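Protein in question passed on here:
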Amino acid sequence: QVQLVESGGGLVQAGGSLRLSCAASGRAFRNYHMGWFRQAPGKERECVATISLSGVRRYYSDSVKDRFIISRDNANSMVYLLMNSLKAEDTAVYYCAADVTGFGQGRADYWGQGTQVTVSS
C-alpha cells in the first residue's frame, strides 16, 4: 500500500502561482512513477504531468506545458507541482497518483484524496 496526501491547494488570482505537494508513505517511493491529475466539474479526469522513477523523464499535457513543473524528492518521498501563470481553466481538484508501470491509459495504482485549486479571473 502507498498512501498519498496532497497539500498546497487554494484560491489564487489569474496569473499567480501555487505549489502543490504530495507526501507519500508506505512502500518504496522510488519504485513508483508519480503524477498529477486534475478534474474540473463536469469534465473527465485529465493527466497534467508525470515524472519517472529517477525524475529524468517528465510529461506535461499541452494545456500546462511551459507553465507547470513537476519534480520529486526520492529521499523524502515527496512530489511537487509548481503551477505558474495560472488561468481560470486550471480550476479543478488536483490529485496526486502513483503507478508502477507509468500510468498507462491514465490508470494509477494509488490516488490521493485531492486538493482544490481555484483560479479567479
Remarks:
- The mean pLDDT is 96.
- The first strand starts at residue 2 and ends at 7.
